[in-house]
Design a protein that fits this description.
The protein is mainly α and 178 residues long. It has a domain at 48-91. Helix content is 41%, strand content 0%. The protein is built from 4 helices and no strands. 4% of the residues are buried.
Length: 178
Amino acid sequence: MSKKPTAKPKPAAKPKPAAKPKPAAKRKPAAKRKSAPKRKSTGKRYSKTERNKIISHVKDVNGTRGRGGVASAVRKFGVSALTINKWLQAAEPGAVSKRPGRPPGRPPGRPPGRPPGRPAGRPPGRPSGRPPGRPAGRPKSDTANTLKRLADLDGQITKNETELISLRKEFKRLKELL
């Protein structure tokens, strides 16, 4: 009887050290957590001399060019256009208004988004109640003529589509010849 050679057992790989579990991040309960105090956002404060210098620059540019003083001051001094316009308004009320003789903004009681002078309910761009494209003397219900015109247009569209198909076939044939 012969003994079968037994396979030598493979040496066992060295066991890797187990990774240490990371400690869970501890959070304070929401009720006890202190919130950071809100910082007040304060912009740069300008002195009277700085304001007067900027306003005089705006007036000089507007005097020579006719416009563009505020934009020029924004680029030169780094002050926002809103701030400059507020200063101009405070210095000379009505000087900044693009519509002289009228107060800025919409009149009270008119909802935003509707231009002034247009009554509520009337769609924009149509001066009267009739639909666009309908002459003043034409009756409102002219269904027979409308249906006839629709049929004519449908015939023209079909004719043009069939002509277009034949033109595409000819184009493809000529293209293949090249």
